[in-house]
Automatic annotation (TrEMBL):
It comes from the Bacteria. This is Flavin reductase. Pfam families: Flavin_Reduct (PF01613). Residues 1-31 are annotated as: Disordered. SMART domains: Flavin_Reduct (SM00903). Residues 37-182 form the Flavin reductase like domain. Belongs to the non-flavoprotein flavin reductase family. GO terms for molecular function: FMN binding; riboflavin reductase (NADPH) activity. Keywords: Oxidoreductase. It comes from Actinomadura litoris.
Length: 184
């Protein structure tokens, strides 16, 4: 019997108990995992904020970004536990998600670096509420951290959207099979 409306709670619970959800399936190593999931094209975003107590922007690049909910408006992105920038961003009253365009590969690479002034040479303005908006980004989404969920070697950040808009017209910067590009 399928798990449609007629399935009993005990049947569903029994099926769940029969699945080994805690074990890694045999044959799944990091290289293979990255190779297979790399076949799913993603856009690239820059998560930015003005650091507390300063007027300087900070930011990081991410390709794990998605919409979550319309009511309330929520988005999510993932950040590695090893990020040295996320601790500087998480306390900001507002974050700005910049959806990067194809010509912004250098911006992405700069924000992916460790240490130093990541914003050196990056032109930016401010959103109406003061968030760092990177020039040339396709759109911006201003949000605040709603929840964080530890998930393996990353944290999933769920953020509430407060404002958003289109900014620039161009092709998106895409990440596919371990490299950056655009539509061809």
């Amino acid at each position: 019997m399928g798990h449609g409306a007629g399935a009993s709670a005990s049947t569903l619970a029994g099926d769940a108990a029969a699945r080994p959800s805690d074990r890694e399936p045999p044959g799944v190593d990091g290289t293979r995992f990255r190779s297979v999931l790399g076949r799913f094209a993603t856009g690239v975003v820059a998560i930015t904020a003005v650091e507390d107590g300063t007027d300087r922007p900070a930011g990081l690049a991410a390709n794990s970004f998605t919409s979550v909910s319309l009511d309330p408006p929520l988005v999510a992105f993932c950040v590695a536990h090893t990020s040295t920038t996320w601790p500087r961003l998480r306390g900001a009253a507002r974050l700005c998600v910049n959806i990067l365009s194809e010509p912004q590969l250098e911006v992405c690479e700069r924000l992916a670096l460790r240490g130093g002034d990541k914003f050196a040479g990056i032109d930016w303005t401010r959103t109406p509420n003061g968030g760092p908006l990177i020039e040339g980004a396709l759109a911006w989404i201003e949000c605040s951290v709603e929840q964080e969920h530890v998930a393996g070697d990353h944290v999933i950040v769920v953020a509430r959207v407060h404002d958003l808009d289109h900014h620039h017209d161009a092709d998106p910067l895409l990440f596919y099979k371990g490299t950056y590009g655009t539509f061809t």
